Amino acid sequence: MRIAACQMVSGTNIQANLSTARALIDSAAQSGAELVVLPEYFALMPKSDQELLDMAEDFGKGPVQQAMSEAAKQAQIWLVAGTIPLKADDDKHFIDACIVYNPNGEVASRYDKIHLFQFERGEERYHEGQTTQAGKEVKSVNIETWEGVWKVGLSVCFDLRFPELFRKLDTPDIITLPAAFTTFTGRAHWDALLRARAIENQCYVLACAQGGVHESGRQTWGHSILIDPWGATVAELTQGEGVLLAEVYENRIKQARDILPALKSRTL
Hints:
alpha/beta, Nitrilase/N-carbamoyl-D-aminoacid amidohydrolase, six-stranded mixed sheet, 6 helices, 15 strands, globular
């Protein structure tokens, strides 16, 4: 199966971001991608989290969700729509939701980001828990293609640091990770953590990132990447907007698990 990650450098104009996302999705689909992933906060990289709170949509309706549903249907792809802010249980928080659309434009799954980023280094600080409501349920989705059915485990950005979440996905074929890693943490940890998740779960990991300097002043690491079940890099971008295209093979997953049956050897 051919898959794609659409790396972006999202700004503060929602319509402009949606136009960019749509162009990248269409480019990926025209190149034969059947599964396309967008980054975290693809529709808005705000100057403050209050902006994400203000744009939060009711689940199942709203301009961002409608645009993504139409994009998936018109391109005839499975779309992991990065994250979309949804209304939470109170008006002081939003949900950072990863919504998966099938080729009919229907919602196939929704994963709410469980682990909320907290970081402080000089003047650079983030505390997502102040405005984001954490999810509670691990999610995966089976996607049907011409080649067969693939089990896709869903995760978002800071989840990457918590291997127990990925164990609960119960041996997916592919893990997707929309992200907006900071440049500082990305340079230090991005590659090592992604590679570890692929090796220990013996599956493909497709990470789709924000990658550049944003209007808000935030700097994101980029380096969207596909890693295979043996921990090898299949394809990678660096900075800026673009489409990462690559192939995944079912027999590569089987080969890794047959050569080193680590998943069968688990005792905990």
